[in-house]
Specification:
By secondary structure, the protein is α+β, with helices and mostly antiparallel strands. Strands 1-10-9-8-7-6-3-2 form an 8-stranded antiparallel beta sheet. Strands 4, 5, 11, 14, 15, 16, 19 and 22 form an 8-stranded mixed beta sheet that branches. The protein has a 3-stranded antiparallel beta sheet with strand order 25-26-27, with no helix packed on it. Strand 26 and strand 27 form a beta hairpin. It is globular. Its EC number is 3.4.24.81. This is ADAM10 endopeptidase. It is an enzyme of class 3 (hydrolase). One of its GO terms (biological process) is membrane protein ectodomain proteolysis.
Amino acid sequence: MRKTRIFVLFQIVIFSTLTEQKALDDYIRHYEELSYDTSDLHERHIRAKRSTSDKSLSLKFKAHGRDFHLDLKPCKSIFTPDHKLRHNNGTEESIDTSFIYDGVVVGAPDSSVHGAVIQGIFRGVVRIPGDTNYHIESAHRFFGRQQNKDFHSVIYKEEHINLDPYRHKRGPSNFPGTCANDEHLQWMQKVSESAVPQNRAMRTEYEDGYHNKYSAEANEYSHRQKRSTGSCNIGTKNTCYLYLRSDPLLFNKLKEGVGDIAARDEIIAFFASHVDAISKIYRNTVFETYNSAGSPPCYTNIQFEVKRTSIMTDETENCNNQLQKSSFCNPNIDVSNFLNLNSLQNHSDFCLAYIFTYRDFTQGTLGLAWVGSPSRNAGGICEKWKQYTEGSQQVYKSLNTGIVTIVNYGKRVAPRVSQLTFAHEVGHNFGSPHDSGQQCAPYGTSQPNANQGNYIMFASATQGNREHNDEFSVCSKDNMTRVIQAVTGQSNGKVNCFEVSGQASCGNGIVEDGEECDCGYEEDCTDTCCNPKITGQDRSIDCKLKADAQCSPTAGPCCTSSCNFVTSTANKLCRAATDCMQSQNCEYPLYVHYSITQSNYTLCNSKSQVCLSGFCSGSLCQAIGHLDSNGNVISSSREEKWEDCYINIAGQLTVKQKEELCLLACQIKTNGTCITSKSNDLSTYPEFNNVVTAAADGQEGVKLPAGSPCNDYQGYCDVFHRCRGVDNEGPLQRLKNLLFSEETFTTIKNWIIEHWWAVMLMAIGLILAMGLFIKFCAVHTPSSNPNAKPALRLTDTLRRRRRPPPQQNYMPGPSEPPPPYSAPGKGKGGPPPGHRKDRQGKNRQTDYEMRRKV
């Protein structure tokens, strides 16, 4: 009976633990199911597509404890008006992109939405400032045909994404994990320099030392001084036109269970989401150099648009024809050769040309791209098709290229991971090497901004939810600015390929910088307060308020349809409350509302983090000294600063030790002693004890969320809050640990000492067995000695039978030699040829006569 109760209790604990975190895969630690009427959404999408007036689409659902109301409009900022889908035979066709949408979240100011509606299911990203980014994907990707029929989509927060779950598999010697290793970089450097004349007399100021741009010394920040800010607009020619392709492996992966037509839409939507992601990063970045003198340039508002796409399939590449199949059909191409395949084609019509694939490259590599240079070295943005030296041959290549894969160690990566990888590789094209040094790779160092994470150009994948993860470091911006200056100024043989944007941002339905409102194009606009965008015209009043209009409903919820501000007496909600922000009502005459933030160090995210500046981004260790035992924020005058740390336990771990490794641990930055939240030393640190009491909810210690790293980054916490070591080599590693572990050797040693007599008998028996084996098998062993008997076959020995001795039918003769071969009177030359029969007969007769005479 007692055992039954324990079993039931154990099942309850397991069930309650599993319900806390629902992991989709190694990348997504927690998600929620999402369901709505897909048939209705598909029908409304078709109506919006055919409509000549109202092309908007509304989608409502509830998830993660809040209501979502998405107001969507067709996306007109990703693809150029003359965008074409190019086929392998050279033909092109226009393609429908009406299923790709941009929009906003109703009631959430400054929010944005980007996604696509395919087969009645919306997939995309919802960005809500002050809250988080929500990612929505089709459940088919994770569950296939076996998925639960009660839901068709999954939605998860950005902070629940682990961007680099396989960092431990690479080990210290394989640190990069995102793009190239040193061997690839050396090859790329050699190729980019092979187009540079060797006997040129003049060198530019940027060339000196730029060949060392991959070194840590080349990216140190300590000797740079920031320029004075001024006008940084790059001008009207600010758009980099892209050529995006997918290879057959990616098409085959995405068409599983959905068919060719849906797979093509999935790839187009995939392209759009990645361009939308990098556009938001690059458009808002101010690229500037950090020199000690002069007036260095700076640039901003760089945009990307897709001019051409290509979807490679088994049919277009003749993958089923061994004589005619394309090289892209080969599944076993390493990352450098795959980039080379892309570079062998002429891409001079584009700023950049990328191929997306589903190939699992070695060492966790997710992408590779040619690095831009402000010198005459080839590579990067706007590079034209030219001749390069490869050994003794001259080969034409386009080095304005790159590649990105969406699979890593056998698992498909999350969209956020491939989007940051795309931004990272494009950063290489713009001239940035990997970040290095404490200033430009601060995470884990003593820098004051270390807790904000590493930047985009860090060699390995970043956390993804830190402030710096969507930004370029000052080192990256310095290098990229020099390349942009060389390209736009067309110096050192560079060509400026930046173009005027094919589609103005006004008219996309999103209020952006420089706009008072945005109700879309004239045929879409139903807002009486805003001047719409008119196709084919560039008016100064576009996206501006009409005369006598105070505001526009497109700018936020605090404006009425009569173009007047909502007064405070209406008690209309402007911004919903979050863990770190209070709700805010509309308060005329304020037009822009900033929610009142919760106090810093307020517990948030189910008491696993704390608020900092209105965002749930701080760790519990940072709150030590700022919280009492009830979780209330208190003032503190202590100068000691705490940070996260991880304890390490070597060897075979017990269950208790695994659980201890998944407890919160903190350390004082000055002494570096790591203390767990279950330590007996907590009484020595009352401030730490207060945080543990407030966050643990009566449990012993604060448990880390599932998916958190543990054991000094040698494992991760599972849903049972136990540290699970990363299995780098699967069953082979487990077999290796079993056979060659220290515990195994100790067991064998003790057994030998105790049973020494058995070891002696086994040794003697082994020697005897080897001797007998050699003795009996010697006759079957071939020998190089010409005088030795030929070796017998084993079958001859097994089938050999004893034969009786031949019977003698004559009396034994004298022991003297036989007579000569020839008979008396014959020549000595032997018998003439051709008389074998007669010779044999005569021989027999002579032999018989001899016997008779005897």
